[in-house]
Amino acid sequence: MNYEKHIFILFILKNYFMKNFGCHYPTELVVMIMKCYYRDEWIDTQFDNFPRFDHVSYANILNLGAGIDQIIFKFILPKLPEEFTYKKICVHDLISTIRLCIDGCDILYLKCLQFFDCIKYDNDNTRIISYRLVLGHFFGESVPSKFYHHLPRNFKGIRLNDCKNSNITLFMRLHKIHRIIDVIDKEINVDKNPSLSKLELKNVIVSCHYVEVYQKNPYLVMHNETHIIQKIRSWNTFIVITHSTKNHYEFRLNDLPSQTSKIIFHSKQLYKIKGFILQLNDKDFDIGKITLDLDRKDIFFVDVNIPSNINCVVCHLWSNDNLGRLKIRYTYDVNMYGMYQNNQFERLDMTSNI
Hints:
Strand content: 35-45%
CATH topology of the largest domain: Adenovirus Type 2 Hexon, domain 4
CATH superfamily of the largest domain: Adenovirus Type 2 Hexon, domain 4
Helix content: 10-25%
Oligomer: single chain
Number of helices: 4
Order of helices and strands: HHEEEEHEEEEEEEHEEEEEEEEEEE
CATH class of the largest domain: Mainly Beta
């Protein structure tokens, strides 16, 4: 008996028990059925136009599962002439922007890639690199209506099962190749070298992590006609350049709304910082939790949950020694909301927390 026939028989058995025993049919049967025809799986998606340096490429995300919570980009870089070498690449050196659109609406527009950098190199070939984008940074929990749903409310990703009639498109813009290249001979000008402009990527693969992939049998696809509201985070990035003749630095964080729950700081000199205080309306604020990225010394996260009556946020930093000119980037999240209804998705204009 092949796999799909086996699943179809289980589906018939489930309907038989429901028809004859109502809600009292064996729950063990349902668990067995769900394990048989739902599974998590990485599936490759092809770009409609092959990615090129300094160009925009796009790929249509297939609706093959209940949801997507991660995306991996895999690049095979071209072989360089002997006088050039690749830098130790950060993702923002290679990728300029990443956009996710649902029915033409920007649901994710990401330019601050240095805050979510996790480039991995292949052990056997350093020209093969991959970048994992975790959608949990941008898609939060959901508030479903009171009905059974096999995808839990704490799922942090795109709820594909609830927007089957929507078109999901991924856009990616790459920088020029010059940003990721270094020279052995410092007298060579990378930006003006014509041979580099002709180099093309050997291959680019985007893989999506589908949660609960279902089989091709259309009778096994669950349909949802009630609405679900999901929290979605957008990120706003700013650059601060501050000077000090001492080891104390002070700067204002502009336009932070009350919905802000997390601030991420990024600087090449952050590892020299020994003290950190946030002041809200001129009063010290209990930061709660600072999360350090163990793989990097240039970034840390701060959980804030800024109250609604705050109109002034000031950051104080203390270093072990005088750093002189300090350049620091920060990004903060703003909570928005999206609604899944009638198998389609739409953005909501809401400012109150769910």
